[in-house]
Amino acid sequence: SFRKPMDKARDRLLHRILPAAGSVCDLACGGGDTALEMARSGKKVYAVDLSAGMCKLAREKASAAGLPVRVIRGDMRTFRLPEPVDLITCEYDALNHVPRKEDLCKVAEAVARALKPGGHFYFDVNNRKGFRQYWCTTFWIEKPGLALVMRNGNDHARDRAWCDVEWFIREGALWRRRKERVEEVCWSGEEMRRALHGAGFDKIRTWDGGQYFKMQRGCRTIYLARKRAGRLPGRHGGA
Ligand SMILES: C[S@@+](CC[C@H](N)C(=O)[O-])C[C@H]1O[C@@H](n2cnc3c(N)ncnc32)[C@H](O)[C@@H]1O
What count of other Cβ atoms lies within 10 Å of the Cβ of residue 92? Predict the structure, then answer.
């Protein structure tokens, strides 16, 4: 399935951290699949997303599965949790959705605030090479009752890429047409490290996501950052 690469990467890269994490938050949770997966293993789980529709979907899935996931509508630049957690995940390049360059520091600070000292932030991002390689072509999917086209473009100079998604869903004898533009901002490794260090993360590890996704090497990076274990000065200290 579409989700398998990320599940495999998480299991492998967090094999020491996940079992020890009693409380987690999936940031930009989308439909909530990762949050549900973690709730199944008995963790206390929060899930945050900006979209009311995605929050509703995640709540419905959690309720249908009988899992106690607390879904909070929030912006990753400003969100707050009721209590600090051990681990925050943010998967499938959700961090590339942050709209402005200066917003990255806000995300790093909000995440640091929501983590316990020594807690971890795990996420993946598309890189410049990925933007050049993949955000320039047209893809389409055809299934019974669905036809979907993705027209991608990018602007190297501005570190931005976009995907115009247009899809048709069969509704009885008719087809309903929908359109949406998804935009992404690219972060260099240096920008990412600066934002994370500035927010109080002291240990940062990276992996090439190409080994988990069927894509060329160097197009996607997976990060694991640890919040400093001691007391942090000022605003990064508590939940
Ligand atoms: C590519 S999807 C990733 C979904 C999810 N992480 C997963 O693994 O399926 C991006 C998600 O980020 C959310 N999002 C975009 N901007 C956001 C923001 N500023 N704060 C919180 N969520 C945001 C969108 O609503 C969407 O659900």
Answer: 19
Say yes or no: domain 130-184 is CATH 2.20.25.110. yes
Pocket probe for ligand 1: among 4, 45, 50, 183, the residue whose CB has the most ligand atoms within 8 Å is: 50
**Which residues, other chains included, contact 128 with Cβ-Cβ below 8 Å and sequence gap of 6+?**
156, 159, 186, 188
Residue 126's alpha-carbon distances to 34, 62, 108, in angstroms, are: 19, 29, 17
| HEC-encoded secondary structure of 111-127 | HHHHEEEEEEEEEEEEC
Query: Chain-wide mean pLDDT for the chain?
Result: 93
Confirm if 215 and 104 have CB atoms less than 8 A apart: no
The residue contributing the CA closest to ligand 1 atom 15 is 97
For the segment 14-60, what is each residue's pLDDT rounded down to a tens digit?
Answer: 999 999 999 999 999 999 999 999 999 999 999 999 999 999 999 99
C-alpha of residue 55 to centroid of ligand 1, in Å: 10
CATH for 4-127+186-236, options being 3.40.190.290, 3.40.1280.10, 3.40.50.11810, 3.40.50.150: 3.40.50.150
- The two tokens of residue 77 are 């630049």
Band of residue 4 on the pLDDT scale cut at 50, 70, 90: confident
Q: Average pLDDT for residues 158-166, to the nearest whole number?
A: 94
> Which residue from 34, 51, 61, 126 has its CB within 8 A of the most atoms of ligand 1, so it is best to mutate?
51
